[in-house]
């Protein structure tokens, strides 16, 4: 059963009526362009065929009711939140995401009444595939629809992404960029989304690796290191310091040719951060140029360069992701890299479809040899972005 159908059915069972609206939003993979978003740079994500769906109807008592339902039909309700009074810090755990979105829309003057939400999804959680951004986006779209402002126009989606990011930054308290929300809202089937965070320019880049005998293999390392949140916040703060020292608008305003001179003006501890951001933006441009000319295989080398930069300069990888990347490349992948915030989660490898099973086996064997739990794999095909869930 799809998440949308499960959410709608559970809503009916719990509340004795059909939900007024059902919207869903996907998790994401990012081909390349990591830790560039909050530096005003370039990202190149695509939507995964895994989604979070939200079934919703208004409630008259001013409360935000939130229930999740898992694939075996087990429902779990969070304590309802009073919309008019809720403030950051009041809600913790998973329900902080939907409550945060309601809070943002309340302050924007768009959410005036209570609401009942039932949430179902199949985005693997804790795997760095943006299940939380998918949840925020699906909730935002459902609430806007109930408020009489259904989002259909492509241009409204950037605003929704900003609201969802605000919920995550200011209500949940995670200082993330806008990559995940933009991917969930603006990606299209069979395309990558090239997004420039500074200019807000967007472009859909056709992406069909299967037509070149290739696949994007997602490797879930099954690990999540404790310092992932503090590590992310530290890197972000380091980049902000570098911006101040250089007097630039963002690290992405630095051209690759000015990099050596700019680095020499920086505190040595901050140089690797700036180098990663500037070179990563260039790798995104180079990747798009290769894809546009049907040279997808060659883009693999850029993925591996991105990994090396994230590992050595930005220092957000971890031994489990390094192992997956090294072994995938040794086993014949065109390239591989860690993906997302880092310190655990998933990596991706670009592989010839017929070599996929050998790459999976090699990575699994290497994990076993290190006494690690088996990683999980899936072949990721670019799917549709968020929308009204009609499949129910
Ligand atoms: C996480 C964040 F949520 C994104 O905003 C982005 O910074 C990413 O890490 C790194 O590219 O997914």
Automatic annotation (TrEMBL):
Q: Where is the GHMP kinase C-terminal domain?
A: 290-368
EC numbers for this chain? 2.7.1.6
Quote the PROSITE patterns the UniProt record gives.
GALACTOKINASE, GHMP_KINASES_ATP
Q: Which family does it belong to?
A: Belongs to the GHMP kinase family. GalK subfamily.
Q: Which domain of life is it from?
A: Bacteria
**Organism the protein comes from:** Actinoalloteichus caeruleus DSM 43889
Domain (Galactokinase N-terminal): residue spans on this chain: 10-58
Q: Where is the GHMP kinase N-terminal domain?
A: 97-186
Q: What is the lineage of its organism?
A: Bacteria, Bacillati, Actinomycetota, Actinomycetes, Pseudonocardiales
Alphabetic keyword roster: ATP-binding, Carbohydrate metabolism, Galactose metabolism, Kinase, Nucleotide-binding, Transferase
> Per its UniProt entry, what is the enzyme's top EC class, as one word?
transferase
Q: What is this protein called?
A: Galactokinase
């Amino acid at each position: 059963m799809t998440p949308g159908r499960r959410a709608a059915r559970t809503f009916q069972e719990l509340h004795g009526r059909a939900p007024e609206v059902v919207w869903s939003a996907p998790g994401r993979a990012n081909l390349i362009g990591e830790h560039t978003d909050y530096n005003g740079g370039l990202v190149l994500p695509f939507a995964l065929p895994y989604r979070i769906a939200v079934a919703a109807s208004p409630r008259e008592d001013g409360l935000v009711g939130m229930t999740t339902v898992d694939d075996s039909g087990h429902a779990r309700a969070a304590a309802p939140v009073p919309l008019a009074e809720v403030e950051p810090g009041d809600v913790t755990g998973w329900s902080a995401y939907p409550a945060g979105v309601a809070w943002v829309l309340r302050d924007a003057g768009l959410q005036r009444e209570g609401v009942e939400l039932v949430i179902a999804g199949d985005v693997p959680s804790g795997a760095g595939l943006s299940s939380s951004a998918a949840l925020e986006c699906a909730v935002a779209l459902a609430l806007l629809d109930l408020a009489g402002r259904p989002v259909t126009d492509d241009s409204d989606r950037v605003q929704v992404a900003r609201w969802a990011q605000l919920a995550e930054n200011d209500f949940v308290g995670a200082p993330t960029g806008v990559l995940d929300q933009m991917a969930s809202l603006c990606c299209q089937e069979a395309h990558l989304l090239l997004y420039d965070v500074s200019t807000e320019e967007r472009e859909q880049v056709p992406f069909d690796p299967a037509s070149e005998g290739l696949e994007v293999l997602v490797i879930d390392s099954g690990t999540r290191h404790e310092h992932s949140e503090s590590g992310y916040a530290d890197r972000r703060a380091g980049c902000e310091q570098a911006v101040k020292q250089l007097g630039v608008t963002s690290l992405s305003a630095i051209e690759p040719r000015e990099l050596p001179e700019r680095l020499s003006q920086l505190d040595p501890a901050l140089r690797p951060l700036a180098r990663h951001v500037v070179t990563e933006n260039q790798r995104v441009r180079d990747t798009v140029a290769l894809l546009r000319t049907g040279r997808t295989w060659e883009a693999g080398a850029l993925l591996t360069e991105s990994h090396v930069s994230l590992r050595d300069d930005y220092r957000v990888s971890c031994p489990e992701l390094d192992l997956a990347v090294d072994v995938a490349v040794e086993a014949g992948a065109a390239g591989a890299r860690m993906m997302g915030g880092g310190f655990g989660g998933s990596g991706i490898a670009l592989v010839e479809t017929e070599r996929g099973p050998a790459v999976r086996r090699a990575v699994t064997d290497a994990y076993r040899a290190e006494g690690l739990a088996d990683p999980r794999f899936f072949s990721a095909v670019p799917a549709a972005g968020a929308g009204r869930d009609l499949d129910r």
